[in-house]
Amino acid sequence: MSGASDVAGQVGYLRALLPEIVLTVSALVVLLVDVFQRGEHRGPSGSSVRWLSVIGVLLAAAANVTLISLGPAGPDALVALDGFRVLANFIILGATLLGLLFAFDYLKREGLEIGEFYALLLLASVGMMILSGAQDLVLIFLGLEMMSISVYVLTAFNREDPRSAEAGLKYFLIGAFASAFFIYGVALLYGATGTTHLVRMASVLSHGHPGLLTAGGAGLLLIGFGFKVSAVPFHAWAPDAYQGAPTPVTGYMASGVKAAAMLALFRVLWVSLGSVQGYWHGTIWWLAVLTMVVPNLVALVQDDVKRMLAYSSVAHAGYLLVGVAAGGPLGRGAALFYLVVYTLMTVGAFAVVYVVAGKGDRHSHLADFRGLGWRRPWLAGALGIFLLSLAGFPPTGGFVGKLYLLRAAVGSHQPGLAVILVLTSLVAYYYYLRVVWKMYFEDAPADVPEPDVTGRAFRFGAVLCVAGILVAGLVPGPAVDAAGSAGLTGASAPSVDESVASTAPGARQDAKPRTHPRRAAARAQE
Amino acid sequence: MTEFLFFLLSAAALLSAVFVVVSRKPVASVMFLIVTLFSLAGLFVLLEAHFLAAVQVIVYAGAIMVLFLFVVMLLNLGHVELPDFRSAMARLLAGAFGIALAAFTAWTLLNGSDPLTAYGASAADPIQSVLKARGAIGALAVPLFRTYLVPFEVTSLLLLVAIIGSVVLARKEAP
Fold first, then answer.
1. Of A31, A124, A191, which has the smallest distance from its Cβ to B116's Cβ?
2. What is the mean pLDDT of residues A170-194?
3. In whole angstroms, how far apart are CA A458 and each of A97, A249, A374, A384, B62?
4. Which of A26, A271, A320, A486 could form a disulfide with A83 if both were Cys (CB 3.0 to 4.6 A apart)?
5. pLDDT tens digits for range A15-33
6. CA distances from A142 to A134, A145, A418 (A)
């Protein structure tokens, strides 16, 4: 590579990709240890595999901290070195850690304890980190595929269960279809600009006259991303895949996959296509509106809590798209902050559902939650907090996150989005609060099955989630600061000016001194 | 000589491609596809793209064809004569699209405009200059192992994930 940048050399990449490398190595170690421990007999994997994977995630997080001190990557580097990537990595690693913690009990209960599960989960996270941190469409595509293929397998991991196998096949077929759209869009954009590098593509597009090829490429790219983030009308696979997958995997899919794809979408749109906003901004606006309205209405009539949460997760993609449509530092910060909170609450909610559902994931119907508040107060309390946060009640993190998104929408002069966000959130109260009502105000008949006993890892993970949500709701300052100051290399400003945003009501945190992003990000993860 | 070879190879590629489609025995189709792929490799040699020609033979005529043959054998399709399952409507549409595409290509070429730049593609042709400077293999090797080294390595990880995934899904019994 010709540019005199700090990471563009081969050794530089070793430094700039340290978290990804650490996580990959730990995935390989997990595979090898598992093989040597189990040897010829096909029993369940030992507990060392679990702890090795948890340690791998923690080491990767530590490696991610070292990225903060690295300067911005050179203009030719294929990976970005900016606050956006560091925060995205923390969100993904957080989702992975929670996914692992919640998977332990589940895998033991369902007799699925084989080491490849952990290895695939870690490799999926490597793919996500590459996806959200890459600055080149080739690398973005490879990260996307690495993440997707691992998650297809994880979805179908419980082969004995026809629902899991069906969900895996559906997800795989639709995902392959989406990848084809994506790669065709990349090809057209390469044809239009002569480069796949996001920053260079931006400079080509800002000088020349973008033609039909650019529009077609951007459109196909949007369709590909639309499938991955499950935006309406590309969401049809999501409820089935989410419902059929093993429940901890569902939580991981709903948080990690969505976060990585959403952040990559943000980077691609605002870095490479920022100068041709006319081509895609209206589309993103409509995608956001549809994705907020449709799943929230459909979720009203779902009687299965797991499926209801699946629709709720699709609806949250709509809220996140508001942040993408807003763009700029405000939209960026709002999307990042919301993703932190969303990860905590959605992974936690799915985890509680699998405990209540019992062996084989059979009892996730609304009626199975009757009287849970009196039978299992701690479990019900945790689920209650997750649901209230998903609905957006104060003093939870979900409330602050929605406030931040509203501010971003208003700040970018798109009050329509803000109004729809508020209205759809009000509609969503019904189906979230219905579960809370069942838990506390209806008695459990004798035939309701008793929920599982929870293990240590589950309790630890649930406490982490609840604490994170409450901290994000009560003292959001540090996390909001970190998210708001996360830089994005080569980002272009929204075409509408943002001067209004800083004077808008609720802009309180702008006055505060910025805390160091590292500490705030670490706190946001806890 | 070059011109003669070009027409010979083109004719072989086109004819065998037609036979791939019209042949009713799957094995015969696969065999004709091998001829097509080899003729294309010859055409690549004429264009001085030697590396591409070698890859064409090794990957397509070698690995992928073996895969095709395996599928045909495993599904025991060797002696089956497949009935034509395409409807008249599908044939009509496919023919119309084919003719439209050919007409469109001919029109843009006859108009004298580069078909790509006419629709907003970048005008500079980066390939020719690189080919002159480094030759066909250098033009591939330098980007692959310098500029795109990271994607190259990530590809190996991607393949690893695919292998682990297929082993997990195809394992014999639940543990």
1. A191
2. 92
3. 11, 14, 20, 16, 51
4. A486
5. 889 999 999 999 999 999 9
6. 10, 5, 35
Q: Say yes or no for a CB contact (<8 Å) between A138 and B148.
A: yes
Inter-chain contact A123–B161, Cβ cutoff 8 Å?
Answer: yes
Looking at the predicted structure, is the pLDDT value of residue A495 above 70?
no
Q: Which residues contact A345 (CB under 8 A, 6 or more apart)?
A: A386, A389, A390, A396, A397, A398, A465, A469
Q: Please give the Cα distance from B166 to A237 (Å, whole number).
A: 22
A225: tokens are 């991303």
- pLDDT at position A175 over 80: yes
Q: What would the two tokens of residue B100 be?
A: 């439209």
Q: Where are the domains of chain B?
A: 1-82, 125-175
What does the alpha-carbon distance between residue A364 and residue A167 come to, in Å, rounded to a whole number? 17
Residues in chain A: 526
Distance CA A155, CA A245 (A): 5
Confirm whether pTM is higher than 0.90: no
B158/A146 Cβ within 8 A:
yes
B1-82 adopts what CATH topology? Four Helix Bundle (Hemerythrin (Met), subunit A) (1.20.120)
Which residues of B are less than 8 Å from A76 in CB distance? 147
Check: CB of residue A331 under 8 Å from CB of residue A267.
no
Domain ranges of chain A: 10-525
Q: Are A182 and B114 in contact (CB under 8 A)?
A: no
Report whether A124 contacts A146 (CB < 8 A). yes
Residues on chain A touching B149 (C-beta within 8 angstroms): 10, 13
Q: What rounded mean pLDDT belongs to chain A?
A: 87
